[in-house]
From TrEMBL:
PANTHER family the record matches: GLYCOGEN PHOSPHORYLASE, MALTODEXTRIN PHOSPHORYLASE
Signal peptide start-end: none
Name of the featured protein: Alpha-1,4 glucan phosphorylase
Record GO biological process: glycogen catabolic process
Superkingdom of the source species: Bacteria
Species whose genome carries this gene: Actinoplanes octamycinicus
Length: 812
């Protein structure tokens, strides 16, 4: 399929010469500059455009193939995308890395220098956002027709720095110099309504007219999402909020009221300003809900627009469309689709509801009650009056269904209602998401089981078949091939080809090499070279990493108690045979999460004390790498020996950092939580350091009543560690951390402390036996193939989406 035929466009070349020609064209015609006067930014943008053109070519062929086959589409709705830096990835995916490296010489710069200018889009917070990016990558790789929808935040994530050891936040203006990867599509702009009131429609008991109080425009742009080893290029479409033309008040401007003249436009634009605005104020909560609705309204209208290009009949909508809700943030899409179908397209309620229910699927990503969203009814009433009416009707019909199944069980009805009546009346978004979808899944076996047995138990009783598990996965391209080229080459050599990049189970081919001394030697050499690149400390020391968001349930404080205990042990016995360790932390704490920020502060205080102690410093080093993001993860992961996955069992839904680290040959020390369980089952008990309570024991312990002081009194080393914090041994920092551990210890840190330390002793024993450690490391990689996001996507495709791939023909 040559789309250029008939319009006289030339085919893009594949040789270094041709690439160079195109690079120079980009520089002259699109940057408007010359080789002599090109700035580093010009060189960067010219290269991006040249690479982007090659993907745009494939994108055009993909769109044509999709149009021709009118397939069933997956639409992924997500508040976050952490796409990572694009240039290196797109060079790999377009197969132009080598020619580009050659071609850029004409600009007098190396590819590496240019790549340094490629900043990652800051459009997400943590695992959920990175998962979204891995899934869209794998959907394209598996030729699944898909669009990811999101918001183009100006400030999707803050930049973290340390000031006096404490986290400081600054805005991260990731697109300050523009984002050359993005294609604006102003013609697909959407109009979004807020506030106002509803009015009855004559002749219809159900339909309503919504008279809005505010109108905002959603302007889309898209980023290309190429598949690896295939022709498919999908897109992520991101919405940015703008005021309408009418939002600029010219008469006020003329009267010198400059701020007032633009206030409405500013208010509109605030919708896509930041991700998860602080919701501790009423205004903040309203802005969050506004954002969620903005994403859903724009995306649904776009989805319907796309549907109607090739289809006329609403009966086909649910056949042609599946909309995956990434957590509850886009749940408002359910009543929005009802509103569009009933009020705007005039379908009757039952038909609309049948379509809606069959269209959506919901992935839950948490078990923490505080993370399950609820919105005050009064907020809905003011911001989205029509949606509240629709939710009430959905709820009424749903509760009737419950009553039919469980007659007289009023307690159950109260528990299951979409409207929570305890205290302030609130809309329970997770309930709405379960009621309005065809499938609900958790993100790891344990998580899905706990969802069915605890948080969503009533729903699982009612609709057992609705509940599924799809274990998360990660992109082997980004997190092995791009992040760890040395290991990738060694793997390819060991297995014989690079087919593992799209069929990660092939890593099992490494198993037979686990006992091969010369292979093991090279495996170690790769790790060592990666550690030298990272430059966090002695490359021969055990590199022990804990990289993830800061949250008390993840228990960075437990890792810290281990560090403090090691510090005391070494001081007490300076001539002991200690295993040298570099303990590396990286991660951000939510700006308003004070307890997490105190832990960061204490880590740095302990690190400084150790660094200044000549007895301990040769054996123990604490490093805090600032501003953790995808790019930094790609540097740390290849250098890790030990992966800390030490959340309290039952709290981490899945984790995906655990998978990335295991794939790169780090050994895991972890609890029976989230995907750790599945990692351990695959890599083998002998190759995993297990400790701590399981989820059942942890829940029991909480119920029985837990007194952290008892653990403190019983364990001399634990006592010493906590006492040293309390007595100010670490620059007087950390009182509140110790106090919360001794007072309440929400996440049972002190309970698991002893077991964790014992497990760390086993880590050291294994580390001392170099050959054993290397063998374990190789086996971790060999048996982690299951954790490819390609497998995750295949699971979704087969069990939830029921979509078939569409092959995009190669250019011939
Ligand atoms: N914080 C889970 O906590 C999981 C990811 C992706 C999380 C984490 O265990 O791996 O989602 N949950 O499924 C939410 O964001 C609500 C996360 O990233």
């Amino acid at each position: 399929m040559d789309l250029r035929q008939g319009i006289g466009l030339r085919r893009l070349g594949t040789t270094a010469d041709e690439f160079q020609q195109d690079l120079l064209s980009s520089l002259y015609y699109r940057r408007g500059t010359t080789v002599e006067s090109a700035s580093p930014r010009d060189a960067y943008e010219a290269l991006v455009l040249t690479v982007r053109d090659r993907l745009a070519d494939r994108r055009a062929r993909t769109a044509a193939a999709h149009f021709a086959s009118n397939p069933r589409w997956v639409y992924y709705l997500s508040a976050e995308y952490l796409l990572g830096a694009q240039l290196e990835q797109n060079l790999l995916y377009s197969g132009t890395g080598e020619v580009a490296a050659e071609a850029v010489k004409v600009l007098g710069r190396s590819l590496e220098e240019i790549e340094d200018l490629d900043v990652e889009p800051g459009l997400g917070n943590g695992g959920l956002g990175r998962l979204a990016a891995c899934l869209v990558d794998s959907m394209a790789t598996r030729d699944i027709p898909a669009v990811g929808y999101g918001i183009r935040y100006d400030f999707g994530i803050f930049r973290q720095s340390l000031e006096g050891g404490a986290q400081a936040e600054r805005p991260d203006d990731w697109a300050f110099q523009g984002n050359p990867w993005e294609f604006p599509a102003p013609d697909d702009r959407q109009v979004v309504h807020f506030y106002g009131h509803t009015e009855p429609v004559a002749g219809s008991p159900i339909r309503k007219r919504w008279v809005p109080g505010e109108i905002v425009l959603g302007e889309p742009s898209h980023m290309l999402v190429p598949g690896y080893g295939t022709e498919t290029v999908n897109i992520v479409r991101l919405w940015r909020a703008r005021g309408s033309e009418a939002s600029f008040d010219l008469s006020r401007f003329s009267a010198g009221q400059y701020a007032e003249a633009v206030q409405e436009a500013v208010r509109a634009e605030n919708i896509s300003k930041v991700l998860y605005p602080d919701d501790s104020t009423e205004l903040g909560r309203e802005l969050r809900l506004k954002q969620q609705y903005f994403l859903c309204s724009c995306s649904l209208r776009d989805i319907i627009r796309r549907f109607r290009i090739r289809n006329q009949n609403w009966d086909d909508f649910a056949e042609k469309t599946v909309i995956q809700l990434n957590d509850t943030h886009p749940t408002i899409a359910i009543p929005e689709l009802m509103r569009l179908l009933v009020d705007e397209y005039e379908l009757d309620w039952d038909k609309a509801w049948s379509i809606t229910r069959r269209t959506f699927a919901y992935t839950c990503h948490t078990l923490l009650p505080e993370a399950l969203e609820t919105w005050p009814v009064h907020l809905f009433e003011r911001l989205l009056p029509r949606h509240l009416e629709i939710i009430y009707l959905i709820n009424m019909l749903f509760l009737r269904e419950v009553e039919d199944r469980f007659p007289g069980d009023t307690d159950r009805i109260r528990r299951m209602s979409i409207i929570g009546e305890e205290g302030e009346r609130r809309v329970r978004m997770a309930h709405l998401a379960v009621v309005g979808t065809e499938a609900v899944n958790g993100v790891a076996e344990l998580h899905s089981k706990l969802l069915r047995e605890t948080v969503l138990q009533d729903f699982a009783d009612l609709w057992p078949a609705k509940f599924q598990n799809v274990t998360n996965g990660v992109s082997p391209r980004r997190f092995v091939k791009l992040a760890n080229p040395r290991l990738s080459d060694l793997i390819t050599e060991g297995i014989g080809d690079d087919g593992w990049l799209t069929d990660l189970d092939k890593l099992a081919g490494l198993e037979r090499l686990a006992g091969d001394a010369s292979f093991a030697e090279r495996w170690r050499a790769v790790k060592r070279a990666n550690k030298i690149d990272l430059a966090a400390g002695d490359p021969d020391a055990l590199t022990d990493v804990m990289i993830k968001r800061f949250h008390e349930y993840k228990r960075q404080q437990l890792k810290l108690l281990h560090v403090i205990t090691m510090y005391h042990r070494i001081r007490a016995n300076p001539t002991g045979d200690w295993v040298p360790r570099v303990v590396l932390f990286a991660g951000k704490a939510a700006p308003a999460y004070h307890a997490a920020k105190s832990i960061i502060r204490l880590i740095n205080a302990v690190g400084a004390t150790i660094a200044a102690d000549p007895v301990v410093a040769p054996y123990l080093k604490v490093v805090f790498a600032e501003n953790y993001n995808v790019t930094l993860a790609e540097r740390i992961i290849p250098a890790a020996d030990l992966s800390e996955q030490i959340s309290l069992a039952g709290k981490e839904a899945s984790g995906t950092g655990n998978m990335k680290l295991a794939l790169n040959g780090a050994l895991t020390i972890g609890t029976l939580d989230g995907a750790n369980i599945e990692i351990r089952a695959r890599v083998g008990e002998d190759n995993f350091f297990l400790f701590g309570l399981d989820a059942f024991e942890a829940a029991e312990m909480r119920i029985r009543g837990y007194h952290p002081r008892e653990f403190y009194d019983r364990d001399a080393e634990l006592k010493t560690a906590l006492d040293s914090i309390m007595s100010g041994a670490f620059g007087g920092v950390g009182h509140e951390v110790a106090e919360s551990l001794l007072g309440w210890d929400e996440y049972l840190t002190l309970v698991d402390y002893r077991s964790y330390l014992e497990s760390q002793d086993e880590v050291e024993a294994a580390w001392r036996d170099r050959d054993r450690w290397t063998r374990m490391s190789i086996l971790n990689t060999a048996h982690s193939g299951f954790f490819s996001a390609d497998r995750t996507v295949s699971d979704y495709a087969a069990r939830i989406w029921r979509v078939a791939p569409v092959t995009v023909p190669r250019e011939d």
